[in-house]
């Protein structure tokens, strides 16, 4: 809300296809975030996106998507009730 992207019409659920001539169709979310964070502040950014709200809603409702999971490889036993 109130971001430059929102003011230009980008909405939750839109699929970003290209940013400044860099293809985003086959990169994972974490790579996309790192790329976007690395853009110089104040630089003009060109984004090509398409509306995919229906697909986005299905992903959110089905709990499918790319997420970070950390698996630990040790056993832990609580020593006290605290």
Notes on the protein architecture:
The protein is an alpha+beta fold. It has a single domain (4-61), classed as PDZ domain (Pdz3 Domain), CATH 2.30.42. It is 28% helix and 13% strand. The chain contains 3 helices and 3 strands, in the order αββαβα. The chain has helices at 4-7, 29-37, 53-62, and strands at residues 15-19, 22-23, 47-50. It has a 3-stranded antiparallel beta sheet with strand order 2-1-3, with no helix packed on it. The longest helix has 10 residues, at 53-62. The protein is extended. The model has no long low-confidence stretch (mean pLDDT 81).
Q: Write down the domain tally.
A: 1
Tally of helical segments: 3
Q: CATH architecture, please?
A: Roll
Which of globular, elongated, flat, extended, rod-shaped describes the shape? extended
Would you count the extended β strands for me? 3
The proportion of residues forming helix, as a percent range, comes to: 25-40%
Find the CATH topology. Answer: Pdz3 Domain
Q: How is the main sheet built?
A: 3 strands, antiparallel
- Overall CATH class: Mainly Beta
Note poorly predicted spans: none
In percent, how much strand structure appears in the residues? Answer: 5-15%
Instruction: For the largest sheet, list the strands in their spatial order.
Output: 2-1-3
List keywords for this structure.
about 80 residues; alpha+beta; Pdz3 Domain; 3 strands; extended; cell adhesion molecule binding
Structure summary:
The chain is α+β, with helices and mostly antiparallel strands. Helices cover about 30% and strands about 15% of the residues.
